[in-house]
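Reviewer 2 asked us to include a model.

Predict the structure of this chain.
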Amino acid sequence: QVQLVESGGGLVQAGGSLRLSCAASGSVFSINAMGWYRQAPGKQRDLVASITSGDSTIYSDSVKGRFTISRDNAKNTVYLQMNSLKPEDTAVYYCKAQVTPTMPRVTYDYWGRGTQVTVSS
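Predicted model (structure tokens):
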């Protein structure tokens, strides 16, 4: 069984920084793309940033230049460094990963339970 566990959320003032982490554990054979999504109250869940196994990255326009996604393949972990935070960044942040378990060898999308990020003005 594979699990994704996020950490690093919290309350921060506008202009501040936070670093989110998401670690995959369990029977992991390989991980392809990993990404971060966010969902504000009453809104849909949107992509924030994603990174492939080859370290190609994609960012939403709203976070370009402020957020950086990275990964540590040895630790099965993806990070999101968030700088210059704004009140509109307030949301629950979810990690998603395309994971192939050891058994069966079929790739699935796995989601974490989310971590709250609140930016005060």
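Residues 6 and 120 are 21 Å apart (CA to CA). The mean pLDDT is 97. We have added this to the supplementary material.
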